[in-house]
Every structure is written in C-alpha cells, then in structure tokens.
Hints:
By secondary structure, the protein is α+β, with helices and mostly antiparallel strands. It has helices at 2-9, 22-48, 57-84, 92-120, 129-196, 198-218, 226-243, 267-278, 317-328, and strands spanning 10-12, 15-16, 224-225, 248-253, 262-263, 287-293, 297-303, 334-337, 341-347.
Amino acid sequence: MIYNFIRMTTRHPRKIRPIFNSRTVLWYILSVIVFCIWFNAFYNILVRREIWPYGSIERGIAGICLTSLPIIVFIVVNTIVVFFIDRKIRIVPIKIVIDIVISTIGVTIANLFFIGIIMLLGKIPVVDWAELYMVDFLILLVHEVAYFVISYRLAESKANEVKSHMAQLQYDVLKAQVNPHFLFNSLNLLYSLNAIDKDKAQKFILSLAKLYNYIMRQHEHQKVSLKEELEQLNFYIEVLKMRYWQQFDVEIRGLGNVLNQQIVPASLQMLMENVTKHNVITTDDPMKVLVEIFPDKLIITNPMRPKVNDHVSKSGIGLRYLKRAYGDLGEKFSYINDGKNFIVTIPLFN
C-alpha cells in the first residue's frame, strides 16, 4: 500500500524528495483508499460483528467517509514522521522509539483539533483515546515495515552499483595496460631485429605500422570480423618469423569455416604475443602454434617450454583482458595448461 508510493518517491530512505506527477499521486491515493476500506471492514467485524452494519448504501458511504477521515490524517502524519523528517539515526530501536513519540504527539494534536471543531459546532465529542492510539500504532507499524524494506532494497541496490563501478574500473585499468604492454614488447623486438638485420627491421616496421593502424581503427569496437583478424594476424606472424629466424611458425586449419563470424579485436595477435613471451624459442626448440577454426569457436594450441625466472609472464594481463572482454559480451573465453600444451578456446560470434 504505502510502500508503492514511498518506493517511487524516495531517493534516500532518510530523506524523501517527492516526484510530483500523476502516477505518484494516484498510487498514494489508491493505497490510502484500500487501507481505509480494509480498516473499516476489519473494525466492523471486530466490534459490530458484521461487515456492513449501515443499513443502506448512502449511510454506509457516509459512515466509511466519517471513519476514514481520522485514518487519512493518521496516514499522512505517519508518512511525514517516518519518511520526511530527516534524522541521522542509525540505531534501529532508537529510531522506532522516536517515531512512536513523534507520531503520538502528532496524532494527539490532530485529535484535539478535531475535538475543537466538533465543540464549535455545538456537539459533545466522544473520543476513545486508547482506540485511536491503537489505530495510530498499527498505521505506524505499516510505515516502519515499509521504511526498512525500502532501506534494505536501496542499500542492496547501492552495493550492487558500487560493485559494478569497481568491476568497470578494474576493466578499464586492465584495458589501458594491454596496448602499452604490446607496444613495449614490439619495441624490444624491433631493437633486437635492428641489430641482426636492418633490411628485416625495415620490413618489420612496415608490418608493425599496419598492425597499429589496424589497432587504432578497431580499439573502440567490441567485435570485428574474424576474416579481418586473420589477415592482420598474418602480418604479425611474418614479424615473429623474422624475429626468430624462421623458428616460429603457425599452422591454421579450418579456413573453410570462416564465414561471417566475429571476434574481439586483437585477440589472435595478443595470444601469439603470449606464446613468444612465455616460451623459449630457439633453433633447438622451434615453436609451432596450431590454430583450428570451427564454426562456433577457435582453438589455439602451443607446446609449453616456459622460460626460467620469467616474472613478466606471471602478470597474465592479456589473458585477463580477453576473459573480461568476452565475458562482457556473454561468451566464455577459456584456457588450460595440461603441462605439455597451452590450449586457448575463443568463442566466435555469429
């Protein structure tokens, strides 16, 4: 009843900022009407032993309206007491006691006002104060329950919002680390290659320029064409072949399955970088990576030859980034290390 009105008009449980629109007013009026009808029926059954003791519809409407007038006043008073009075009290029992005291004072003042009006009309008022306070307590109880239900839901919503913001912040930080990390490794690679073969270094620079042109164009996109990703991967494979004197190779199977699938930008490039970063690649231990393309997924497998004391590889920046990126798109990016091979499964978007 009252809860629906309060829920729509509350931004903070201790300080309501009403939104004055037709929907809010309608919910509040409807809640008050329903409570008044229920209270009259309950009172008639409890005291008069019948639900309709009025005799006629006209007298019934008049009786309900007369009985409902103080009920409406009690509801308004308790709405103000529980929700509109801003008190910085976090201890629940103390808040309830203070609400009871203020509500009792407010209802007493309202009743004295009605008694004064009746006396001015020349009539003698008959007031059952115990009954009035019991009614007021019942209405206050409904408001208090509504207040704490709202407080709980708002606190839960706020906690989820904070958790979401923290997760997004962590993701943004991780994303910001990925491209500089790749640039750092590329510059190291260029430095090494320049000392070995200047002609190959020039080819490397051209391939690297194409790669970064692609990264610049696609970094704002969540998904890109798998076909385009494979084309850019070829540039990076050529770079790695130059760097490792043809001791690095990639076999791609299932090109016939490439249709209109999509993938997170730079996924393949990042995973190839991980292979070179984490493993020893020499003439005695050449590296061959297998890429298998299926209609709904792509699997990358490479043998494990971990570097000794490779602290950088333990950061896992690229893998964490990809896991989060695919997770945000509703797909599961996974990888396993069986001791002999490192196997990555990339979901494809159709």
